[in-house]
User: Fold this.
Amino acid sequence: MGFKATLKGAVFAGMMVAFGAGAAAAQACEETQFSSKTGEIYLKAEQAAMTEKNFAGAAQAMSQLKSMELNCYEEGAVLKLSAYINIERGDRQAAVRDLLTALEKGYIPQKDAAGTYYNIAQIYLQDENVDKALEYMKKWQQAGGKPDRQQKWQLAVLYQRVDDFKTAIKWAEEVKSDDGSKNYKQEVYDLLIYLYNQVDDKAKLASILEEVLVRNPTERKYWDAIAGNYYAANEERKAFEVQKAMYLAGLLTKEDEIMRVVNFYNRFNAPYHAAQILEKEMNAGRVSKNLDHLELLANLYQVAREHEKAIPVIRQAADAGGGGAMYERLGRSYADLQEWEETENALQKALQMGGLKDRGTAWVMIGQSRYERGDRSGAREAFGNAGNRAGRSWIQFMNSEEATASALVCFEVQAAYLNVENEAKICKRLAVLGEDNVPENCKTVPERLKAAQEKFEATPECKAQAT
Assistant:
């Protein structure tokens, strides 16, 4: 945040430079009054300056007086009135010379010296002569001057202008303390923000920025300053919280600002919130709906496992020029949702459009989609087209799966045959008991045994095992 304090606004209001008649005589001067001739001319000059505001006429009278032989009392009074007239006429350097001469010759009592130094400082302030103004402000303090609130503000500004930031901070903090919490002055806070930034006092800078934000919650520059302070301190999480608050307050409306918030959400593990903001701002037209942003939005939804939300975005990205690679992503998203027909359609289009880094993987996913839909021959064809380890693994798995199924069929037929065969053996042993004592089921054993044997011999799976 930049800051340039102005001296014009710091000049002491209503500077008292009325050095007219009645000014105290120096201790070394024993004269106490004007002579009649010089007194008449002096009164004429004083009336022209003080009453008539005829400074040109007053200056002529002063020139006449200065050409005369004056006693010490008269010379002191003339110098002081001359300084006042020169200030009013805009000849500030002449006014300074008058006042310095009066000081050097002792025409200004010691008790009034501090005030004179202060007046000289104000004259230099009006001329924007920073170094001289500061020099005489120091002399004023050395002579016993006690700064009030306005004079402390002048000192803060002057020290800031000569790049003595630590001393400027001292005076600015005193001004803030004098003002108190109820008498808030924005220029004081702005100066302190600038000074704390210059001396890299991050703790005080953060504290005063928070004070300012309480009073100016919609003032963008203070939010930016706080975020910048956190960035400089490598406290990205805090910077993110500030950026988030700015966004929620409606202060961020430009595309790059909104994208910064989106990226922050993503970086701090909140992809779903990042996606929501990005989609909302694209729909509102504040963020362009280009391929990069659509692809980012799709990524965010996919990372957040919101595949149903990702799919329409991926479609838009594909239509916006994403090519085969984007349709491949669309196929993956459908696969995550186990929508197998849509999976194959998207991947077939991806293969047709080209631009895929790995066509084999796309064929594997097509094979899987066919497998899940019960198209085993189609799945084998797709896995074969893949021509990679994954495709071969799938074919081996299907072979093993089919061999297991075949063995299970044969096992069931063979088990049924063996059960009837065992039953026949038992019935044969029971035949010695007499026909009337043989169980009813034994009467049908020969027919059932024959049927089971024929079924076993006719089952293809059992034949394959036999060979």
Remarks:
- Residues 1-27 have pLDDT under 50 and may be disordered.
